[in-house]
Amino acid sequence: MLKQRDQRSETGQFEGRFLVAMPGMNTSIFAESVVYLCAHSEEGAMGFLLNKPATITLSELIGHTEFGKAMALDTATVDRAAGPVRIGGPVDEHRGFVLHSGDYSIDTTIPVSDTIFLTSTVEILKSIVAGHGPHQAAVALGYAGWGAGQLEREIRDNAWLTMDADPEIVFAHNHDDKYPALIDRLGIGAANFIAEGGRA
Helices (H), strands (E): how many in the chain? Predict the structure, then answer.
């Protein structure tokens, strides 16, 4: 589903933007969630939750890999490199993805925007451990996916607000502040909404 940016469909108007859950969405993993949308086309959409922490640290995650088992990790340094691991979404939840700054790139790196890139191979984890990974990184387990037309319907049903993405929010380590910060940035508060919305 992910494509190089110059091949992006004209229907991908939400690609590279934030989805901010409406307050009425309160019965799923998407409640009070912030999603960075990496792909959007007539085929569907794909993105990563940014503010749902996983129960595993980055050093623990790397410790489960073959290369991680073979080395002594400086856990504090590794964990500081990308902050808390996020739950990226309910799809492929055991697979790791890394959103990162543009100072790191390999053959499999996909540019999502001018400032945010995506790499989903173990090579980027090796680079982080070796100390020459990206300056900014956000590690996610799993992703959020929508079928053809599904995201558009949810937005029409007032399940999501959309807004320009901010790299500082993408890479910030404090997950609890992200949702209220974006609601405030939109100039609105939860009290202004009818507590009813679409389902994700």
Answer: 7, 9
Residue keyed to tokens 């380590």: 173
Sign of the C-alpha dihedral computed for residues 72, 100, 11 and 4 taken in this order: negative
**What confidence score (pLDDT) does residue 189 get?**
59
Evaluate whether residue 176 is within a structural domain.
yes
Rounded mean pLDDT, 180-193: 74
**How does pLDDT run across 53-76, given as a tens digit for each residue?**
999 999 999 988 888 888 888 888
What total of structural domains would you count in the chain?
Answer: 1
Per the structure, the complete domain to which residue 9 belongs is given by 5-189
Strand segments, DSSP code E, in the chain are: 17-21, 34-41, 44-49, 86-87, 91-100, 110-111, 117-119, 137-146, 160-164
